[in-house]
Amino acid sequence: MSLIYNTEVTSIGPLVEGFYPEKMMILFKENAPDELADYCVLHDVNDLKEEIKAGYTLKIDGTNYKITAVGDVVNKNLKDLGHICLKFDGSTKAALEGTLYLEDKEIKEVSLGSKIEILAQ
């Protein structure tokens, strides 16, 4: 597997945990608008080396999640804004264009310094 994206969590909005029961996490680069930052996991790096595809792996602090579907604007939004939604529900069709869908598995809660990576097969 080759690493196509990695970043580190620099801040966690106070409302992030409220999305865990919904199997959801919102990522945004550190420059998130104030009205969104409370809901987001903020990170510092925005270097996507190639397009994300279903079948690739997202990794949070060593816990692997298979990518099951990729919304139409995920690659553009991650590259340009560092902003995507992660949905841990196993969907194989992307209902929302800014959402990256992952296998239905318990979310690994992030903390400051958590590593988020995407690996190509």
Structure characterization notes:
This protein has a single domain, classed as M1 Pyruvate Kinase, Domain 3 (Beta Barrel). β2 (24-29), α1 and β3 (41-43) form a beta-alpha-beta unit. It has an 8-stranded mixed β-barrel with strand order 1-3-2-6-7-5-4-8. It has 121 residues and is mostly beta strands. The chain has 2 helices and 8 strands; from the N terminus they run ββαβββαβββ. Helix content is 10%, strand content 38%. The modification Phosphohistidine is found at residue 43.
Please summarize what this structure is.
This protein is mostly beta strands. It is 10% helix and 38% strand.
Blueprint of the fold:
Elements: E1 2-12, E2 24-29, H1 34-37, E3 41-43, E4 57-60, E5 63-70, H2 74-81, E6 84-87, E7 99-102, E8 115-120
Parallel strand pairs: 2-3, 6-7
Antiparallel strand pairs: 1-3, 1-8, 2-6, 4-5, 4-8, 5-7
Protein name: Phosphotransferase system sorbitol-specific component IIA
Keywords: Transferase
Modified residues (Phosphohistidine): 43
CATH fold description: M1 Pyruvate Kinase, Domain 3
Low-confidence stretches: none
Helix fraction by DSSP (H/I, runs of at least 4): under 10%
Radius of gyration: 13 Å
Average pLDDT figure: 96
CATH class type: Mainly Beta
Integer tally of domains: 1
How many angstroms does the end-to-end distance come to?
Answer: 5 Å
**Spatial sequence of strands, sheet with the most strands:** 1-3-2-6-7-5-4-8
**CATH architectural grouping:** Beta Barrel
- Count of separate DSSP helical elements: 2
Tell the overall outline.
Answer: globular
Number of DSSP strand runs:
8
State the secondary-structure class.
Answer: mainly beta
Q: Percent of residues in beta strands?
A: 35-45%
CATH-level-4 superfamily name: Phosphotransferase system, glucitol/sorbitol-specific IIA component
GO molecular function: kinase activity; protein-N(PI)-phosphohistidine-sugar phosphotransferase activity
GO cellular component, one term: cytoplasm
Keywords: Transferase
Modified residues (Phosphohistidine): 43
